[in-house]
Write a structure and sequence with these properties.
mainly alpha; Rna Polymerase Sigma Factor, Chain: A; Arc Repressor Mutant, subunit A; 2 domains; 76% helix; globular
């Protein structure tokens, strides 16, 4: 995530608390995509993920006065998004058929689907908490399926430097996932 106009996360937070429109735009630009991916991996529904992203950003701006900086801003945003996802699940549950009526032999059980969605969401959250160069390298290599040589060209690095970057990025991602799993 790049904070181009405001410059730093602290500057962004100060701008949001002051009600600056540019800080709002910066928040949306810096975190909108990550929040969408986070919500999508939790819901599996593009429209719901988009709604959750928007609701999360609005709730963040309304509640920024209560942000104390105890966790990184993205972690705080994910906490808001978690609540929005839970709201969406409750809404869906009220509108859907009983699980027994919708389940067919051979389909994953609802608990398995929930677990899978939680795992995906944890990976997205951990990925977006990494430094930008780590995240860009991992996304290019493992999400987009690019070879190391192509990742190196995209990042304007040598092949060896890219291999090293990918190794450090993987270690950092795994460490974050283990830390989150222990909580």
């Amino acid at each position: 995530m790049r904070l181009s106009t405001v410059g730093t996360e602290l500057g962004l937070i100060a701008g949001l608390k002051a009600g600056e429109a540019e800080a709002w735009r910066e928040l949306c630009q810096a975190y909108g995509e990550a929040l969408y991916l986070y919500a999508y991996h939790r819901t599996g529904d593009a429209a719901a993920a988009d709604d959750i992203r928007q609701e999360t950003l609005l709730a963040a701006v309304e509640g920024i006065g209560g942000y104390r900086g105890e966790v990184p801003l993205f972690g705080w945003l994910c906490g808001i998004a978690r609540h929005k996802v839970a709201d969406e699940r409750r809404r869906r549950a009220r509108q859907s058929l009983p699980v027994e009526a919708a389940w067919h032999a051979g389909d994953p059980l609802p608990d398995e689907l929930w677990e899978r969605a939680e795992r995906h969401a944890a990976v997205v959250e951990a990925l977006w908490s990494l430094p930008e160069d780590y995240r860009r390298a991992l996304v290019a290599r493992y999400v987009e399926g690019m070879g190391v040589e192509s990742v190196a060209a995209r990042l304007n690095r040598s092949y060896k430097a890219t291999e090293s970057l990918l190794a450090r990025a993987r270690e950092s991602l795994l460490r974050r996932l283990k830390e989150e799993g222990g909580k």
